[in-house]
Specification:
heterodimer, A: 332 residues, mainly alpha, MetI-like fold, 13 helices, B: 295 residues, flat
């Protein structure tokens, strides 16, 4: 199951493992080992299976069932209403704002963070640069902060009356009126996007760094002998070679950004108005925030959201396969 | 790569070396000031939190962007730790992080081992199912998880939170272990069999070889659990005594919105341990993340 920034890594690994591991799995001959394996195989599988069925497989099925009922989670599950929840959601303007904001967030977040992280990753992998380790640590730091906490910190820093940002800008004459970045429709989502970029920056920087170290050193030496400058080496050696990995990283970034939740709760609670209302927040507030809880309705929204995520993921799978072919083509 | 000198190095004349050195110096003179400024901005929120934790309540409110506590006090930490029950949040967070890490490690290592080394009916189906569900977003299945915990009678207990936090995760860890055990040489297992090792003994024999994966699982899960917000929020609604730091801090802000200094002290308390874990294990963490993308 995917959640939190670190889940991202999981997707990276899964994309890489998917095809290959299933394929090699077939080739494993039956090795019974000693006789006791018949007893121990189920025992070893049990802990994972119990939790997996209880907390992933069954919830998936149950979400589908709940979504067909009008259910508050308290009464018995008897009010079968068919696809009513779905038709109501499709006509719910709040859901569509949430949907639009989620996509907007995901796209903006990706478009901003990927080029910046690549730039810093390139810089931090230069041989000549001093204090690499120090800078890497600094850029990586925000990731250890709970997403919710970074949201809280920024509510203080961006506070319009005496927050650090406004005070600084006013004192240096860069601003005449204090600005409330999180309080305006136009700026709130962008501010959250930027804060989330700050938070996740180190992870993507590291992905790029890993990709960059895969480029064989001999290619750079060959380029040196041909008299290529740094810019030429970047555009004609590095970027074409990391393109397959870049496809994967881009899709990971998109999928991960679709799950935005904690930072919204702590920074704006979906406001001002509905300017930062996202799908995961929609589900949370329908199901858990205000009585009567609407589990059925929220489940239907959750399912639509899961389908949306799945569309992104299957797209990711297709592209990853394409990337794998490209990789073979380039012989990396 | 870095260890091997490039072939051109042998041909390098002192002039050429001097040229390279001057060029490196020049590039550093351009890049370093930029990086230092950006790093300062990057680290500013951390520095702000730590310094605000040492300010007086009034000082925190009027300090603006300044990072220098004046006057400097330490009472905020005591107030946050004792008065605002941060010690409880802290204890809960430690309990949740340690237990979910152990649960994840045990179940994924065992399952991954069996998936990698044995064929049994339903193996491929299970494998494909695990891969398919890695991408399920937590928000979309949290309602049934909540209902399940409720029906088990564990809703207002730490065990319930731990189960919810570690129940859904872990599919990825299984895949990491499977891939690792799959690539161990068969000779190892043959030798173990010749020596008469049984199933469990063989597992204990090869488990230490998976140290890199163990490190990745424990570090990822520990930091993830330490930072988790979504699951603890929903499973501890209205139960402050069960909340972790991330959720507790959010509630604390709701009720003490003017106590910036106390809040900052609480934040400092909450991220220092992770900071230490991170700095100590940074190498593992970086290698784990880069290893994951390389597949």
């Amino acid at each position: 199951m995917a959640r939190g920034p670190l889940a991202d890594t999981g997707r990276a690994a899964a994309v890489a493992l998917d095809e290959r591991a299933v394929a090699t799995g077939r080739r494993i001959p039956f090795r019974g080992g000693r006789d006791d394996s018949r007893f121990w195989i189920p025992v070893f599988l049990l802990p994972f299976l119990v939790l997996y069925v209880g907390f992933t497989v069954w919830p998936l099925v149950a979400t589908i069932v709940y979504s067909l009922f009008d259910w508050d989670g308290v009464q018995p599950l008897t009010q079968f209403i068919g696809v009513d929840n779905y038709t109501r959601i499709l006509g719910d303007p709040l859901f569509w704002s949430a949907f639009r904001n989620t996509l907007l967030f995901a796209v903006l977040n990706t478009v901003i963070k990927l080029p910046l992280t690549l730039l810093v990753a390139v810089l931090l992998t230069r041989r000549w640069l001093l204090f690499k380790r120090f800078f890497r640590t600094v850029f990586f730091l925000p990731i250890i902060l709970p997403v919710a906490l970074s949201g809280l910190i920024f509510t203080y820093l961006l506070n319009p009356s005496n927050g650090a940002l406004n005070t600084f800008l006013l004192e240096h004459g860069l601003l005449r009126q204090p600005i409330d970045l999180l309080g305006h429709d136009n700026t709130a989502l962008l501010a959250i996007v930027l804060i989330s970029v700050w938070q996740i920056f180190g992870q993507y920087m590291l992905y790029w760094m890993a990709a960059l170290t895969q480029v064989p050193e001999e290619l750079y030496e060959a380029a040196d002998l041909d008299g290529a400058n740094e810019r030429q080496k970047m555009f004609h050696v590095t970027l074409p070679l990391i393109r397959p990995v870049a496809v994967i990283i881009t899709l990971l970034a998109l999928v991960n950004a679709l799950h935005v939740f904690g930072i919204i709760v702590t920074l704006t609670a979906g406001g001002p108005g509905r300017a930062t209302y996202v799908v995961s927040y929609f589900i949370y507030s329908e199901a858990f925030q205000n009585a009567p809880f609407r589990y059925g309705y929220a489940s239907a929204a959750a399912l639509i959201f899961a389908v949306l995520a799945f569309v992104f993921v299957s797209g990711q799978g297709l592209l990853a396969r394409r990337a794998e072919r490209l990789r073979q083509h380039y012989g990396v | 790569m870095a260890v091997l000198a490039p072939p051109t190095a042998a041909l390098e004349t002192p002039q050429r070396r001097a040229f390279r050195w001057r060029r490196a110096l020049r590039l550093n003179l351009i890049a370093l000031p930029l990086l230092i400024i950006v790093s300062f901005v990057w680290a500013y929120p951390f520095l702000w939190v730590v310094s605000t934790g040492f300010k007086t309540q009034l000082g925190a409110f009027t300090a603006g962007a300044s990072l220098v506590p004046h006057p400097l006090v330490t009472s905020n930490f005591q107030r946050a730790w004792v008065g605002a029950a941060f010690s409880d949040f802290f204890a809960n967070t430690v309990i949740y992080s340690v237990s979910t890490s152990l649960v994840e490690l045990a179940k994924s290592a065992m399952c991954g081992y069996v998936l990698a080394r044995y064929r049994f009916p339903g193996r491929d189906l299970l494998y494909r199912l695990i891969i398919a569900t890695i991408f399920v977003p937590v928000a979309s299945i949290i309602i049934p998880q909540f209902v399940l915990i409720q029906n088990l009678g564990l809703l207002h207990s730490r065990l319930g939170v731990i189960l919810a936090m570690s129940g859904g995760a872990g599919a990825l860890y299984v895949l990491l272990f499977t891939s690792y055990f799959e690539h161990l040489p068969q000779d190892l297992f043959d030798a173990a069999r010749v020596d008469g090792a049984n199933f469990v003994q063989t597992f204990w024999l090869v488990l230490p070889l998976a140290r890199p994966i163990i490190a990745v699982v424990v570090i990822f899960q520990f930091i993830h659990s330490w930072n988790d917000f979504n699951v603890p929020l929903i499973f501890t609604l209205g139960q402050p005594s069960l909340q972790n730091l991330a959720v507790g801090l959010q509630a604390f802000r709701g009720s003490h919105s003017l106590d910036w200094a106390g809040f900052a002290a609480g934040m400092t308390i909450s991220f220092i341990p992770v900071l230490i874990v991170f700095l100590v294990f940074q190498g593992y963490f970086v290698r784990g993340l880069s290893g994951a993308i390389k597949g």
